[in-house]
Please model this.
Amino acid sequence: RKEVEQDPGPFNVPEGATVAFNCTYSNSASQSFFWYRQDCRKEPKLLMSVYSSGNEDGRFTAQLNRASQYISLLIRDSKLSDSATYLCVVTPNQAGTALIFGKGTTLSVSS
Amino acid sequence: DVKVTQSSRYLVKRTGEKVFLECVQDMDHENMFWYRQDPGLGLRLIYFSYDVKMKEKGDIPEGYSVSREKKERFSLILESASTNQTSMYLCAVEPGASGTYEQYFGPGTRLTVT
Model:
C-alpha cells in the first residue's frame, strides 16, 4: 500500500465551483499533516497545515479523520488562480524526518 | 519568511560529469533536505542533514553524495552524472519551530544530463 494516496485528477471545474480533494495515508503514527500547492515548473509551497479539529483559511478548509486515516481539502468559490497541483503531505512529527508526499491532485479552473 | 536559494534554475551537463547543486538558507535552521521530483513519481528524498557535517540517506541516495560544511549551505553532488539523473532537484529547509515540521522549498534546479 502506498504511504500517501491521492486521486491524481485532473479536476476541471468552472470558476465559482466548490471542489474537494481527498487523501489517505497508511502510517497510523503520522502526526503532522499539510497541504502544499505546486504551480507548473515551480517549487511546492505550503498552503496550510491540517489540524485534528479541522481548520479554515479563507476559501480553503482542511479536515483530518485520524480513525480513517483520511485528509481532505475543500476549496470554495474557485478562482482561475487556484489552478495548480495540490500535494497531500504527512510526517511522523519528528524533527529532521522527511515529509512523505502524495503525488498530487491537479486542479484546472476555467472561466 | 524562510528564504531558500539554489545555485541554478536550469543546468545542462554531460554524462560522466561531476555536478554540484548548492542550496543556501538565510537563517540558522538545522534540518535541510534534498529531493528529486519526476513525473508520475512525485517527490523522493535523496539525502538530509540535521547539522553541520551530519547527513542521513534518504530513499534514493545511490549515485549522490552531500556536503554540509556550514550550517547555511547544503550541497548535493552527482559523482558521475547519468541520463537517469535528469530531474527537478528541490532543496528544503525545516525551521522546526515550536514543534511544527513543515518544510520550505527553494525554487528548484532543473537538471538535464545528455
